[in-house]
Write a structure and sequence with these properties.
4-stranded antiparallel beta sheet, single chain, 400 residues, 19 strands
Length: 400
Amino acid sequence: MKRFTRARDNGFGFLEVTIGAALTSVVLVGAYRFSSQIYRKNAESVRSANSSSEHEWLIHRLSNQIRNAVAIPFGESTILSNLSPPSYTCLSSDGFPSTPPSQAIAHGLLPFPGYSLQTMPQEFNPINPSDPSLVSASNSDAVRIVYLASDSVQLDLVEAVSGEDPIHVSGAGSLEKGDYAVINDDSQADLFRITQLEQLSDGSALLWHSSASNWNLSLIHEYRPERFSFVQKVEVVDYAHDPQTATLFHDPHKGDDGFDPAGQTFGFAGRVFRWTAMARGIERFRIYYEVLERGAVKQTRTPRAGLPTDTTPCSSNQVGYPNLRFIQIEMSANKEVLVRNISPDNLKRSALRGEGENLEGERIAIAPPPPDPSTIPSSPPEEGGEEPPTGPPNPSEGAN
């Protein structure tokens, strides 16, 4: 009997094709999942690197501003006022209440320990930075800084000035209408905002500081050329953390008084909120102050404000001369903690400009500017990266 066999060259059977397709599908699905994981990890690595660069850029910028913070001893501006502790809260070495009693004192660095974007004061009312009631183990801090602008030059006073008279200086330098400036002599300094600027034919300039700006007060102290008086351009900025969105915001006070930079016009004298997001993914933002307390060094988030000349053990100044030593910024982001120690040399100086002292060439201490944001991936622009809110922060909206 003849036996028939099927030739092997007639192709695969249905069962073989089905098995082959199933095996191929398993391999392709596995490869897809593997490649997706690699892609996600690469994307996360890129985002993490960009975020780290952004945070490094931010802490460098902030360190630079604190390093260049200016001393404003005995200044008359209530907007920059720290409230010194009430006398009954601090006992001197002999057990009696210290003096002087509570008073407002202007400084170029104003701490807001325990304050967030939502709790930052909406008005310029003095606070007591040594009050620990808002400080906890989980919350952040805020700060207001007056610092030398990168294009600041010293403009000598031409004639004595007080009250609301225009300030006559040797030149305008880089100053413009709407800029902030500080006038100094060997004993005092005051912050003002330029409401009008006139360039004179001899190269000198007149700087008006009228009530068109809420920042301006009539100068009680008389500044005179023989007291080595001069004017410097400064910037003013607030930093505050929003815990709801893990975002650090800043406000450079450009829009205060309804000022329009394009039209060079003022609207109304008052606070205008312009909070702008600087960096996201910030879980916590704190500022520590290394200070002297009765001769011993300690670190605190709640430094005490006082007059630079007050030597009372428990009421002398810790936000500048003579008891401020270092400032430390601590920023928690993406499960990492960035720390930067800063020596605010201008705040630590015993005098702005000593009478008869030749400080030519060293009267301004300006640290190198922060890196160009365009050179760092995903860094925010100079004034932040999103449209700022037009009013005070609203906790229910997360202040976005």
